[in-house]
Amino acid sequence: MTFWRRLEARARMGWPLALGLLAAFATAALLGGADSVLFVAFCGVALLLVLARRRYTPPRPVKLETPSQAAAGFPTDAVRPVLTATLGALDLPVVAFTADANVVMQNRAAERAFGAIEAGSHVSARWRSPGILDMIRETIATDEPNQIEHSERLPSERVFIVRSAPLNLGPDLEAAGRFYLLSFKDISELRRIDRMRSDFVANASHELRTPLASLRGFIETMQGPARSDPKAQERFLAIMLDQANRMSRLVDDLLSLSRLETRSHIAPDQLVDLVPLIGHVRDSLAPLARELDVEMRLHLPEGRVDVVGERDELVQVFENLIENACKYGQEGKAVDVYIDSGADRATEVRVLDYGPGIPAEHVPRLTERFYRVSVTDSRSKKGTGLGLAIVKHILTRHRARLLVRSEQGKGTEFTVRF
Q: What is the rounded distance in angstroms from the CA atom of residue 401 to the CA atom of residue 155?
């Protein structure tokens, strides 16, 4: 190291201290009677220190990330505004993550769809799907976009096109690290429409075949052998009207089911008092109960029992359950309806009949479309096989559950738990 470099290094380490010492030595030497040449030499060294200080410009302070942030790959202050602005401008749910698959941030759409995700947590803490995790690993390894179709069943069935892609920050910010985006495009509506279309065609063609065949047969008979038989025509017309009404009920239930499926992912936000609602259902079904000689008994608490829901749909639920209890529990001659609620437990509405009950092997399948314990019995009671499927879809939208308990010979209990 040369003399000038050594001198500059000393100046950087503490030039004020060095200058002070030199001045002290020079003054002491002069007072002690030293030669004036020595004094001039001390002054020259001091001048060199001052010049070296002017040549040295201290570096600007650099703001460093904490070791935990740097290790986790979190964005610097220069990158964070870019990520925030990019994610905030998108209406799709989007999550940004690092090359270690740790979540950096999410936009509001993602928070509404999946809830808040803690920054720094691994993506597997929210999405455990092997397909999503494999796609993310492949994107990180190849730096190429990928996408898959992903389904979630809770709280309601949703289908997404999930895409992972690298985020190109440009040459000015590439030193900050590698970041990736995970986006979700909701195609639940398209899948539901496709499924409803195919289900409607299959179910409607199956269920409508019998009444249409009956109508065709009776019309051909009335045009032929019964052309001049008024009594036969009157009997056939009554049967034809019954078959036409059956088709009308079937189409109405199918359309109702289709409307419910299109809105199953939208939770209601109104408060509904169940006490007057159950009373309204009892009044509307009173003529049917009298015709079947069944007594409807309500056991309602005093005061309000509020739940979050949509009134018309809840009326449809309890009309269906109480009507089924009256029809299929007719032998028990009574139907009891209870409302149980409390601060420390869920609100429940129980509908009990005392009929023949349902065999245990049929209970898990009661809410399937067109599933009937007894096809003959269901059709004789003018059932379409869609009532409990409609109930299930309404309760799914209301985030409620339908519980069924039955014992042969003792009756059946349907419980709606909110």
A: 12
Q: Which amino acid is at 170?
A: G
Reference 275, options 310, 296, 301; nearest CA is 301
Of 413, 398, 407, which Cα lies nearest the Cα of 340? 413
**pLDDT at residue 40 in the model:** 56
The count of other CB atoms within 10 Å of the CB of residue 173 is 16
- Secondary structure of residue 89 in the 3-state scheme: coil
Q: DSSP secondary structure string, 178-237?
A: -EEEEEEEE-HHHHHHHHHHHHHHHHHHHHHHHHHHHHHHHHHHHHTTTTT-HHHHHHHH
Structure confidence at residue 77 (pLDDT): 61
- Which of 65, 61, 62 lies closest to 176 in space, CA to CA? 65
Which pairs from 392-395 meet CB under 8 Å and 24+ separation?
A: 392/367, 393/257, 393/260, 393/261, 393/264, 394/260, 394/313, 394/314, 394/316, 394/317, 395/317
Global pTM reads 0.51
The pLDDT, as a whole number, for residue 190 is: 85
Q: Residues in the chain with pLDDT < 50?
A: 1, 3-4, 7, 11, 55-72
Q: How far, in Å, CA of 242 to CA of 262, rounded?
A: 31
